[in-house]
Amino acid sequence: MSTPRIAQRRSAILPTLIVAAILVVAFAIFTSFWTDWLWYQSLEFGTVFTTMLMTRTGLFVVFGLLMAVLVGGNAILAYRLRSKTRVGPATSPLLERYRELLDARSIWVVVAIAIVVGLFAGGAAAGQVDAYLAWRNQTPFGITDPKFGLDIGFFVFAYPWWRFIASFLFAGLAFSAVIAAVVHYITGGLRFTGPARGGSAAAQAHLSILVGLAVLVKGVGYWFDRYGLIIANTTLGGDSFTGINYTADNATANAKLILSVIAAVCALLFFANAVLRRWVIPVIGLTLLVLSSIVLGIVYPGAVQYFSVRPDEPDKEREYIAHNIAATRAAYAVDNAEVTDYSAKTTATAGQLRHDAEALPGIRLIDPAVISPAYEQLQQVRGYYKFAPTLDVDRYTIEGAETDAVVAVREMDVDGIEGKNWNNLKTVYTHGYGVVAAYGNKRQAGGEPEWIVRDIPPQGKIKQVEPRVYFGEIQTDYSIVGAPEGSTPIELDTPGGGDLGGPTTNTYEGRGGVPVGSWWHRALYAAKFADVNILLSDRVNSDSKIIYDRTPRDRVQKAAPWLKADGDPYPAVVDGRIVWIVDGYTTSNSYPYSQRVALNQVTSDSQTAAQGTNVVAQPDTNINYIRNSVKAVVDAYDGTVKLYAWDEDDPVLKTWEKAFPGTVLPKSDISADLEAHLRYPQDMFKVQRSIFARYHMTDPYNWYLQSGLWEVPNDPVAGPNSNVKETPYYLSIKWPGDADPIFSLTSVYVPRGRSNLAAYMAVNADASSPDYGQLRVLQMSDTTQIDGPGQTANAMVTNERVAERLRPYQQGTAQAAYGNLLTLPVGGGLLYVQPVYTQRQGSTGAYPVLRFVMARFGQQVGIGDTLQEALDQVFAGDSGANTGEETDPSASPTPKPSGSQSPSTPTEPDNPAAIEALDEAETAFEAAQKALTSGDLGKYQTEIEKAKAATERALKAMGR
Questions:
Q1: Which of 283, 394, 432, 706 measures 20 to 30 Å from 898, CA to CA?
Q2: Start-end of H helices in 641-726
Q3: Cβ atoms within 10 A of the Cβ of 143, count?
């Protein structure tokens, strides 16, 4: 083969590779776009996709073309205005070559420049889709700011968009001036050096107008900057401060106005120069503008701050601090918080809790952050099921009474599947099964949770008509489900209950998922997931659907991209179906005078910092306004998303409802059963408690002095050296003066830099209550010190009685673990309660069991096998109230769920064989407890087995 042919073939390889790469990238982009469209269509939120797509595309095209026309048009104009005679002799061969290139390919050069700047500008504009939609659909707040008298909505919705427009025009004009100057220079119409400095009349006029327009737009920007002062971050008293202060109001705002006037004058000088062509005067004007911006924008405000404000800062800033306090409290919805002085008692006397007896059964001893391993060992059923590391707290009406429950969903865990092949992972093990729930304040005799509902199929007091879980927090990969009617089911449904005791199978019939029956859809998803099996497998049939993006939080945020979702979605059984409830927040970073905070920082605590937690941290973004405006519900079976307006008066919600009409359902559509499970969201409360730590002070002088600063204490359960905040707790508490306990979200404060208790905070978390969302605070007296969580935790574990009871678990093979340290306002003071769990170390299948309960009131500490025993120790032998704890002495401490259960009719329990067996079981349980107390785990296990065997004999004798 000849050398020219080889060279010719080699030269064709690179273009071929480039074309192939472009086609691959284009197909990948198309695949992502089209599958997103299919996903939104399957969710019935297609309008969200089309609105975002059309808006983003429109912004890209309009602003990209505008920039391309502006820059390209000025480049063409500069070329057409070229002089036939060069200004001065050519001094550079390189410049001559550029002139020749431009003369020969002027159109291509201009088009290339226009395309490049247009793409960059269009991309920047497409990123402003939220700002544009908010401006286009803005809703007034009905409140005016104290500086300019404008509606708050102008700053929240309009100001960010207008600032973008001003910066875009300035950048376009400035870049056009640079490109035009370059073209004029190359074509000889402009010269910057040598004896023939200057330019043609056309070039000078062209550049004068462009620079004048850029300076004029800059002047408009200075004018707009005045509005930005009331949402800008400054410093006051050494701390960050959002809003206008004395210096900004009396120096910076005036300076901005003066600079806008100077810029307008300077622009007129440049316009005049288009005719006069005397560059000295406009250049002097531009220099004056630059110097003025330094003097008026930096030097003058600095001098006012240093010489006028600093010597008298508290008095000079008083008015502005007052504006900041009022705006911040309103923006974070803490302005109606009730603060009550509380002279907490520290002396414990007999019968002291008699008036608060109703609140004691609501003390949750089962800690959702600790007990998950017990759920897995007792209710996992098979290794391919899993519960979330942190469980959730909810309320159910059990036997006519509202009951706090610790709930979890049994989800599919693909890591636990033995045969990890494509067919099993994608088409067989597709879903979890059932909600498991236990009483929050009860336990079995061995310390295990006492179940409200358990097993597969679910057995208990919560009816689940559709227990299958295809959408949840754990299974994040895609599955292919569904089949034609009459086909043999292949999806694993339950481990037992099938033929010959084997597993049962099922076929998905839900609305969720994208149909992949067609070859085209299969090809798209094979490309999307880089999985050719989707295209080749016979298990993908004409009725198949692919389900993905399965976590509730992700589905809500994709369905409503304008929302921020709470980090802890929680499951509930509503009308017999398992659903995930996700709280959605509308936020803003432009609320005038309101203090700006980092959302990630103020919502981080021991839950978000825990290893392997399912509680997701919020994004690292700044906000200064927040509302829990939406309650979102994701169906665990079919993945459907419903958004319900919750705060219907929120102007931000109203704005987004106009932008995406029909996507948010009215509050009236919330069913009674769903409303019973709605609660006050944790992340909202975390933001509010962080803000209230300083903004409980409403007097500007005290606010400035920072003498009453509070802070959220570090979580003592996380360890003495931890630097993570204590998480808020859901509890049913009886507020001092109230008649009945209320389901609440609670937290405490300590003084900044101290460990004693400063305040106790709670919010009514019961969505069905007319006082839902009411923040209430008990402020401790300054005359009596009440120990905070850290001090209390230390006092309890070092107490002699506690140390004696826990000593076996510090030396043996079992180890103690501390649960949530709960705080309740009862008995005229503050009661601390903390469950203690024990777990055998180094043993496969070990799990924590509730062994002790510690309590502290004032300086009195108690520890007992039950809360009742601990309280009676604290309150002189008699707390005066019944905690409502109940355990079934005949229940097996380690129940093993079966794959299926068939109920049988029990006989009367009054028979000698059953009574004898139960007596043996009781004796064995007592012996096991003594062995456990003494640290003899071998004897403990032996006695437990005896108790279990005796219990089984009793059940058989009773016909169960």
A1: 394
A2: 651-659, 672-675, 682-695, 700-705
A3: 13
Task: Name beta bridge partners: 853.
Answer: 835, 864
Task: Please tell me the distance from the alpha carbon of residue 506 to that of residue 509, in angstroms, as a whole number.
Answer: 9
Beta bridge partners of 623: 597
228 exposure class (CB count in 10 Å sphere: 0-12, 13-18, 19+)? middle
Tokens 């945020």, residue?
557
pLDDT digits 0-9 by tens, 248-259: 999 999 999 999
Query: Among candidates 819, 817, 811, 813, which has minimal Cα distance to 940?
Result: 813
The identity of residue 318, as a single letter, is R
899-942 pLDDT, tens digit each: 433 333 333 334 556 666 766 776 776 676 666 555 555 675 67
What is the dihedral sign for C-alpha 260, 262, 266, 268?
positive
The 3-state secondary structure of 386-419 reads ECCCCCEEEEEEECCEEEEEEEEECEECHHHCCC
User: Which phi and psi angles does 829 have, rounded to 5°?
Assistant: -140, -150
Q: What is the pLDDT of residues 11-50, one digit of tens each?
A: 667 777 787 888 888 888 899 999 999 999 999 999 999 9
DSSP, res 525: H
In the numeric block, the tokens 């099922």 are attached to 506
Distance spanning both ends of the chain, measured CA to CA: 91
Specify whether the CB–CB gap between 256 and 226 falls below 8 A.
yes
CA nearest neighbour of 368 among 573, 579, 604, 568: 568
Give dist(CA 79, CA 76) in Å, integer. Answer: 5
> What pLDDT score was predicted for residue 911?
54
Name beta bridge partners: 756: 787
Tell me the three state secondary structure of residue 484: coil
**Residues constituting the chain:** 960
* Amino acid letter, residue 313: E
DSSP state of 43: H
Q: Output the six-digit token pair for 536.
A: 């080749």
DSSP assignment letter at 154: I
